[in-house]
Amino acid sequence: MDEKVDDNAIATSDLRGFLQRLEANGELQKIQSTVDPYLTVGAIAQRLAERGGPAAHFMKVAGAGHQITWVSGVLGRGRLGLWSKLALAMGIDPTAKYQDILEEFTRRRESAVRPMQVGGGQCKEVILKKGDIDLTTLSAPILHEGDDGACLTSWAFAVAASPDSNNAVWDILPLSIKSKNTMVGRLPVDSSIGRLFRKQYQATGKPMPIAFVFGAAPMVTAAAAFRRGRKSFTAPELAGSLQRSPVQLVKCETNELLVPANAELILEGFVSPDSYVKCQPFGSSFGYRSTAVEEDGLEFKIEAMTHRRQPVLPLCAWGTPINDLHIVQGLDRDAQLKARFENAGAPVCDVFSPPWLAGAVVAVSTQVPYTAYAQTVAGVVRMTEGTKNTPYILVFNDDIDITNPVSLFHALVTKCHPKRDTWIIKNAEAAADAPYLTAEDKRNKYSARAIFDCTWPLDWDPAIAIPPKVSFDECYPKELQEKVLAEWVSKLGFPKETERPV
Amino acid sequence: MAFQDLREFMQACEDAGEMITIDHEVDWNLEVGAISRRIPEIGAPMAHFTKIRGIDNGASILGSPMSKGWQSDFARIAIGLELDPKASYEQLMNEFMARMDHPIRPLQVAGGPCKQNILTGDDINLFKLPAPYLHEGDGGRYIDTFGVTATRDPDSDWVNWGVYRHMIHKKAIMGGIVNPYQHIGMIYYQRYEARGNAMPFSIFFGGCPTTVMMGSMNPPAGVSEAEVAGGLRRAPLHLTKCETNDLLVPATAEIVIEGHVRPYERWDEGPFGEATGYRASPRMPRPVFRVDCITHRDKPIMPISCAGTELDECEILYGVFSNTAAAKKALKDAGLPVVNAYSPPGLKFSLLLVTVEKGHPGIADRVVSVIRGGKLGPRFGYVMVVDDDVEVTNLTETLHAAMNKTHPLHGLQIFGLAPGHPLVPFLDLHDKMHARGAAITFDATTPDAETELVRRMSFKNSYPEATRNDVISGWNNVYGLPTEAGRWR
Description:
The complex is a heterodimer of chains A (502) and B (489). Helices cover 27% and strands 23% of the residues of chain A. Chain A has 502 residues and is an alpha+beta fold. Chain A is globular, with a radius of gyration of 24 Å. Mean pLDDT of chain A is 90; it is low at 1-8. Chains A and B meet through strand 1, helix 3, strand 14, helix 11 and strand 20 of A and strand 1, helix 2, helix 10, strand 20 and strand 21 of B.
């Protein structure tokens, strides 16, 4: 395992190396025909997210200057499996089971690899300042019908720091181009940069320096999508641990912020507390957008742009599952929860936030040490940073494969008694852009959550009251199962099996 | 051309790669069950077991004739309806519902291949037929898991056909489950037992596959399945009179078991590994089916359905097709702005998904009222109502809408007590025995007029038609993108 990782550590330490790796594994398709950034690029990216497929490298986007190309879905649902591209980014077998990917991810997440500061880097090959900057020549896609403008940063991350320290905060903020040198978009109150801005800059009326990083190594951008507790490692430290090598950071040209040296493109600028503007909502990680309502956004002014030659800019479709955000955030939530359960010595078997449910559900399979253990599990979930907004918590016995949508929902509808086994929690936290919120919820800034206990009650006599599952692997003696499997093709004459579609 | 009998159907399936013949001897004790259980779990062809241990009269078993694999793979049902095995679920469903609307009355004939062998008196021995012991823990050998039980309403012309289950008690006596809310229950408890009379029955196996399809499904009380089966095959069934009662059975049936059920007689029956995926209903005193006569073809073929997790015949025919069709019809008849309904395979007909037009506040409750107000109520404990911007037959897409748009407080409607039935696993013993169920609705529709509509950011909903058409038509030959979806792993 170690040798394999070392091999790939070099391949995945920048975006281009990763794209080559993807291509070698059938997970990247270069699209040579000219595509229209107005909706077509977004439509292709969205369809790939829904069906699963290779990353799409758009080699010719109409109107693109600087020899820019765009690539979508570098970490989204792949050809070989849902997590195949993420596994490749981590240096793991792309056909690995989710549980194995999660275990490795959780392990790496528990340690930090400190970043290194360097004097220069590929991101400085070309440096442009003020008057030479024209964001419209980047040919950013207008991702969806009804979007206010072209979204530049759908898979880029913002970097900011508090005025008196160098502790950087990273976040993915999808912003749209407003003019040659301004972008506009929401800075959510519950994001790390949003908190930082409001507490340390807005409070004192100072503008906040900010940088945007495009095309960092895949796990570096992924680290920016994580939700971190206040006491955990910084994003650059986590990124280094996940990619198994320290992130090399270089100082910006026009401010003190540090950015990955091998990124494809950097924008440097600032955001002022008095620059609130109305903007159309963009969309959310859930895959829904509240229509026709203007929101408060901020204006981001760009003062410098540096980039590699022929920069490759990643994009994410920001629509219904399964895109890069669902993959990365799902894995991160599960890792946080898994670590928490393990530290508490809980008899939890598996944790899974189905990416096809875009974070609305956390499923936990577990042994059940006492009645209503589901509430204990739900309590842990509600306390954990990455999952504190999840509306639905489902708890299962440990013999259920919760990564399979049919067995997950089968266990829900056959084992969860709608009254005995459900708890509704009022006045609970909710994500501000959750699709189910009522107008009142938005005014009050809270909503509700539900817990579904899909485990067999402990006061049922196992001999007569707990229905045994009727399946090949549970209803027949082991020797008979082995005999049938051994004879399946050779003696009984069945065709060799094929993978089943969902 | 309609299939004359099971054997023609089997031939068509073999030609399409949907059946294999196993000449290697297999044991009726668990081995046939294990193989037949695995078939739907992995989507394998059905199996004709020609040699069963201890059976020397040429009888054989056909395992898992209609259940196969996942979401849209209903090849065997399609073949049974003489359609292209690759027909989509929507095509099958539409064809199905159209034919069901045009029943054709059966014709009565004399004799038939099912009369080639007639056994009465001491010659009756159920153990001579290949009756499998299907799952470890079953209460007996279930001779009938895919036969059709015919019973007549004494007060009218109505003859009910249903697929139930029967296990062997003794060589000429069986036991079976008779639920009061099923048609056989209505007939037996109210029209025979209440009057102190024995109820004649005939169970037939085989014949044209439309007979067992109809037996698994749910036309309303008073509608004879034989006529609807005629509609399904687009030709009248040929039925022949039984030897010991007046019931009619397909002349080309493989096996017919005739008998009577005495009033108030109960012997312990069950448990049985059921279609819900669990061996849920407890062993309980249940009606007794006494055999008066067995008739069968030479070398009779016994079709069996090994119920269990994932898919089985009951789930597909009863759940995915019949209950879905019944739900759609009920909702349509109620005049609701319902777009589609679906009981997904693998969810054991316990979940109904419904898509509705947007912008009708309170629509979910009206949908649920129709369901709860009808026969389907006890079946669908879970109902999820979502806006029509998803394809209801796409399970993950519809569940995404349901779990993201259902408000955990206002959107969940819980019925702590509701009509139930003994097969529901989440009920405790007492509730199972007394059919005390429970139900829940997930309302994922737009909650009220005040809350703005949310837009689904999907390929279908967030791009103009022209863009979508260009992208789809250029997908492979312009963009070089793969035609098949990514592996689900």
